[in-house]
What we know:
By secondary structure, the protein is of the alpha+beta class. Helices cover 45% and strands 11% of the residues.
Amino acid sequence: xxxFNELVxxxxxxxxxxxxxxxxxxxxxxxxxxxxxxxLALDKHPKALGSALTNSRITTDYSExxxxxxxxxxxxxDELVDDLTQTHAYSVRHLNGQRLWPVSMPCYLGDGADIxxxxxxxxxSGQMKRLYRKGLTYRYGAQMQIxxxxxxxxxxxxxxxxxxxxxxxxxxxxxxxxxxxxxxxxRNYRRLVWVLPYLFGASPALCSTFIQDPKTxxxxxxxxxxxxxxxxxxxxxxMSDLGYTNQEQDNLNISYNSLSDYxxxxxxxxxxxxxxxxxxxVKVDGEYRQLNDNILQIENEFYSPIRAKRVAKxxxxxxxxxxxxxxxxxxxxxxxxxxxxxxxxxxSQIRFLDLFLLNCLLQPSHASDADEEAEIAANLKSVVLEGxxxxxxxxxxxxxxxxxxxxxxxxxDLKAIAQLLDDDGCDxxxxxxAKWHKAVDNPDETLSGKIMQxxxxxxxxxxxxxxxxxxxxxQQLKAYPLAEHIDKRYQKDxxxxxxxxxxxxxxxxxxxxxxxxxxxKV
Length: 522
């Protein structure tokens, strides 16, 4: 395996630099619909946005109230953000006066039983999607499921794979080399995943309505304003135990050391019974409560801050598509919604992610063991809860290292990649890197630092601040110059998606019980 510096040197010719630049990206942004009062919208998914089951750009996640905007794949960052903005702009025009909640952690929550689970219609596939979410409700409660995030999908070009393969020992086929290289990226990402909540974590504080009883919480919350809870040095409470975590999964020990190890572990996990979830029951008094009583109902329930992915064919499960043809792209899942952007993420973050993920790909990546996995988990927890604490130390290979020192070394490597990606008088990557480099020695330059500075300086309630942002972005997106032909395309997509759902529901099909039995058949 060549060193990082050797690979950077080998990729410095014009053709290789172009291959590096030809990355493919997509974004999935979640956002709660809220009433003007700030309370959660409890009505059905707006019909003007089409069918949540079959519309490729606008769907729902856990709840009818939780929108998810999905971009196609783009090579160009400007086009990617423009597309995401257009989807937002079309959507806000059809929310019947409702707004989008522009942060990850929800607020103004009443009874969790009132949160409407997403409805995908009467087809077997639609019923299964809804039942899966019903199972999540019984298992973890509804409030945890309406936390919002941003997912970043990333792949490198075929040309880069060809170049890297030529530089390898060619002991694997090209397809095997690509999959194993992506798993190398994933292992390095996991070692450095704490970097993302440090820089981009944007949930250091939350509305007290999210916590049933703050006095019984395990977190030593402090209070600002009328009801804002915060931890002094937190970065991303979304990624803490308050967020989407599953302690049942802690003992799964799914390995990322190879595609085959990962698939073996995932197969075992989805067939592993859970005594706790068995207490819920699967079908009680003739009504389903969950898909099954295993630790994972389906693979999607496995929480991981990064996933290996391939576009599925037909009704393939995620692991079946990976087994068929290997890894096609990776999905980064450690991003809070950025409250300083109307669409939840900004271009400088995307450029940083490009550099970060290319670094994870190009650095040597040894197999991970139980000791290192424990370090990875401990580092992430430390940064999530106290990442901005002066002098914070993390663990690396059994030794203590200062967060700032580790970050400084990382930025040196990222700069080498940025210089390869910037050419023709363009310095976008180096400018983006310089922006986030300020946060290495000054935690106030992180997103969480800026949020806490603002709340404390203005003595604002978090909910009041977010509601003002929601209104600002609503007006901004309504005023966005959405071209007529683009508006008509969204309308057409919405109508066609509703027709497609109706066709699915009209087709003859097996019973739902048989459908589930066929789906889970080994």
